[in-house]
Amino acid sequence: MIVSFVVAVSENGVIGRDNGMPWRLSTDLQRFKKLTLGKPVVMGRKTWESLGRPLPNRTNIVITRDTDYAAEGALVVPSIDEALMAGEKAAQAAGVDEICIIGGAQIYAQAMDKATHLHVTHIEASIDGDAFFGPVDPLVWQITSEEHVPAGEKDNYATRYVVYERR
């Protein structure tokens, strides 16, 4: 089973601010949708709450330690391992071979050793924020594709979309 991170990160490692994204990147959101559609998506509670609703046409899996937490339209699990087990079942039922981890910072940090692929949108700017993604270690990850994406009409910044695979 492929376990992919899908993340947008600024030059200074920021992935979020105040439980939201401190940028507007319509081009990247279109890519995110294309990458995740039909696949299980795994996220932490804060990411779930920032979305405000389940992502359509995807099994939404929310990780939280709060045993009483309810997320309408999502499966709620207490750990990364249980999220990946639920994701694998959902992926098999959907006929796909990939689980997408979509944030936030704590979930990425906890799941880094389980990831097989990283889909990283490198935002070509330093941005203020309070949630961070660590650097991608070139000794662990190799670039398999890379694309420069100029800022579109509805984008705040130019980006560089890079796919990494675990060595």
From TrEMBL:
InterPro entries associated with the record: DHFR, DHFR-like_dom_sf, DHFR_CS, DHFR_dom
**Which residues does UniProt call coiled coil?**
none
Q: What class of enzyme is it?
A: oxidoreductase
Q: A GO molecular-function term, please? A: dihydrofolate reductase activity
Protein EC: 1.5.1.3
Q: Name one GO cellular component term.
A: cytosol
Record-annotated DHFR domain positions: 2-166
For biological process, the GO terms are:
dihydrofolate metabolic process; folic acid metabolic process; one-carbon metabolic process; tetrahydrofolate biosynthetic process
Function, as annotated:
Key enzyme in folate metabolism. Catalyzes an essential reaction for de novo glycine and purine synthesis, and for DNA precursor synthesis.
What name appears for this protein in its UniProt entry? Answer: Dihydrofolate reductase
Origin organism is Pseudochrobactrum asaccharolyticum
